[in-house]
Design a protein that fits this description.
- The complex is a heterodimer of chains A (520) and B (83).
- Chain A has 17 helices and 23 strands.
- Chain A is α/β, with parallel strands linked by helices and 520 residues long.
- In chain A, strand 20, helix 14 and strand 21 form a beta-alpha-beta unit.
- Chain B is α+β, with helices and mostly antiparallel strands and 83 residues long.
- A five-stranded mixed β-sheet of chain B has the order 2-1-5-3-4, covered by helices on one side.
- In chain B, a hairpin with a 2-residue loop joins strand 3 and strand 4.
- Classes of the chains: A alpha/beta (520), B alpha+beta (83).
- The interface between A and B is medium-sized, with 30 and 21 residues.
- The complex binds zinc ion (ZN).
- The site of zinc ion has 9 residues of chain A, from helix 13.
């Protein structure tokens, strides 16, 4: 509940209104008018509100916090008009089953009120003119920001110009775990203008030893939005956005639009390949790291600079990599992910500052061993015959060209992705679904579709090699099929495509095409 | 040919005092809240720096360069100081 009132706040009534037998905690914050400010006596405060908007903003912020903390109920009342020292200007109560959530929700509520509620106060001092708080230049946001960045912008390599470049930057951090937390913290401190966090996971108790943006009270909460809260509190001068969803082939492309650099802080190889390909195709620098127990690896991939993952000879079977490379449940040394996350932030900031190849891990891979304290540089040159580099190296657009002409008929690069609509333009083609026995059992629609087991790469390779028609791959999520299509492309097969969005989005069309194919 | 829009502008706090009124209704060729503010700085004596302002259209925060439509209600929001 939110309200703006000209009348004195009746705290007892508001408190009684929140009482419930199932509630275990009530945290109350009262904002009082005090008799001094910045060393000067204050005799009264005049609060003015844009009432209509204050009501809608207040309703919205209460709803957002109640959604962020399920089970918490908030009451927030803001007073307007002429107030004297001792008066209650704002009253916030957060009721919850447990004290942790109540404390945190109440804290967030007052911070949001101060950040966005259209309310202003005029301060009266004895013997001088009253002043509108925050409205003069010398306490303005701009000056605060320059103080915030003072120690960093004093660096010769940064300066005012570098600070401006950082402020103009838009950075995507995929994965808010052991790597993503420290990386995002330091990007926030460095002042990147827009920071977007993507993670579909929830905080677990076993995350806390290394995922430094979270506290015990965060367990069960969505990682991305909880991390965003912590980061906004660290630096109020930047925009932090949270997307509480996993990165997939279907949501990836809009998230890449306008990015200056992308950080891959994920823990599975499927997403890693997806990002690698999409960033190189779009010409966006990608800072990628991975950790195994005490050791870590970091790469900066940039189109036209150094080798890509396929140049260094990626194994053909992605699912095997996933079994080895996933860190879910695997042992991990906390400071190892911390160190690698900080190296990711370091590389990303240097990319944003426009540092050259000598200063970046673009032409080599860094291997970091925290147990023996060793950093090894392994050269990572581009292979002239790498099919992937050859393809993306010659395109300057986003990698998404017209599908129109028949694939591989000329030396124009052929886009990997086809949307369900674009599939029609491919003409007669084979749609192949990568599905396991469980996938089939779960979905009756697979009866009349060509199916290959996702791990049967040999069969798939042969199928594409010998097909006289383009082959479009899909699978329930669209991730595995995209990886596989990329693998086959990297092996020199131009006749293979990945269906955007996976199966759910294309189910209707899939059926109709199958029927047409049957009629032929 | 330039586009003219009828806009209602609300002033608050320091801006209300500088403008000398709570609200004006006017016709303008300004196409964004930021452009409208720049116009009103000269016509209405507004002196708060644009670098510290945010903007609301129809009681919602909007970016400085969002488009204005005929009949919009615009408010210039000086740094807020609630709580
Ligand atoms: Zn390559």
């Amino acid at each position: 509940m939110f309200a703006v009132t000209e009348n004195p706040i009746d705290a007892a009534a508001l408190r009684a209104g929140l009482q419930r037998p199932e509630a275990g905690a009530l945290v109350v914050f009262e904002g009082w008018v005090r008799n001094h400010h910045r060393g000067r006596p204050v005799t009264r405060l005049d609060y003015e509100a844009f009432v209509e908007m204050a009501q809608s903003e207040g309703d919205a912020l209460v709803a957002e916090i109640e959604e962020e903390f399920p089970g918490v109920r908030i009451t927030c009342v803001h007073r307007t008009g002429d107030l004297v020292p001792g008066d209650v200007a704002v009253w916030i109560g957060a009721r919850s089953a447990h004290r942790d959530d109540a404390f945190r929700a109440a804290r967030l509520a007052i911070e949001e009120v101060k950040r966005r509620l259209p309310v202003w106060k005029k301060e009266y001092h004895p013997g001088s003119d009253p002043v509108w708080v925050n409205c003069t230049e010398d306490t303005g946001v701009t000056n605060d920001a320059s103080a915030y960045y003072a120690r960093q912008s004093a660096l010769a390599e940064v300066g005012a110009q570098g600070q401006h470049r950082l402020a103009q930057a838009s950075v995507l951090v995929v994965g808010v775990g052991g790597l993503g937390c420290p990386a995002a913290m330091y990007l926030t401190g460095a002042g990147v203008g827009r920071l977007t966090l993507v993670d579909g996971g929830k905080v677990e108790f076993s995350n806390l030893h290394r995922q430094v943006l979270f506290e015990a009270g965060d367990v069960g909460a969505p990682k991305a939005s909880r991390a965003a809260l912590a980061l906004r509190a660290r630096n109020p001068h930047i925009v932090v956005e949270a997307i509480n969803a996993d990165l997939t082939a279907s949501n990836l492309r809009p998230l890449l639009v306008g990015r200056s650099v992308v950080l891959d802080c994920t823990d599975n190889f499927t997403t890693r390949l997806l990002l690698h390909d999409a960033c190189l195709e779009a010409g966006i620098p990608l800072v990628q790291a991975a950790v195994h127990q005490w050791e870590g690896v970091i790469n900066v991939f940039e189109r036209g600079a150094g080798g890509c993952l396929y140049c260094v000879g990626l194994p053909r079977d992605v699912s095997a990599l996933d079994r080895v490379g996933s860190c879910a449940g695997a042992p991990v040394f906390g400071p190892a992910v911390g160190t690698l996350g900080l190296l990711q932030a370091t590389e990303a900031i240097k990319v944003l500052l426009g540092r050259g190849a000598d200063d970046l891990a673009t032409h080599h891979t860094l291997l970091v061993d925290l147990l023996s304290i060793g950093i090894t540089r392994v050269a990572r040159p581009a292979r002239p015959d790498c099919p992937f580099c050859t393809r993306v190296g010659t395109t300057s657009d986003s990698g998404r060209a017209e599908v129109g002409a028949s694939p591989a008929s000329d030396d124009k690069p052929t886009p990997l992705w086809v949307s369900p609509d674009e599939r029609d333009q491919l003409g007669t083609h084979r749609l192949v679904v990568l599905a396991t026995a469980e996938d089939r059992a779960a979905r009756d629609w697979l009866i009349d579709v060509e199916i290959v087991h996702p791990e049967d790469t040999q069969k798939l390779d042969l199928l594409v090699r010998t097909s006289d028609r383009p082959v479009v791959l899909t699978c329930p999520q669209g991730v595995r099929s995209a990886s596989m299509a990329r693998m086959l492309r990297a092996a020199g097969l131009a006749n293979v495509f990945a269906l955007e969005g996976g199966l759910p989005s294309s189910l209707g069309q899939l059926r109709s095409t199958q029927r047409e194919a049957a009629r032929e | 040919m330039t586009d003219t829009r009828r806009i209602t502008v609300k002033f608050f706090a320091l801006l209300r005092e500088q403008a000398g009124c709570r609200e004006v209704s006017l016709a303008t060729t300004a196409s964004t809240p930021a452009a409208l503010y720049a116009e009103l700085m000269s016509t209405h004596g507004l002196r708060v720096s644009q670098s510290i302002l945010t903007y609301a259209v129809n009681e919602r925060y909007v970016p400085a360069d969002s488009p204005l439509a005929d009949g919009d209600r615009v408010a210039f929001i000086p740094p807020v100081a609630g709580g």
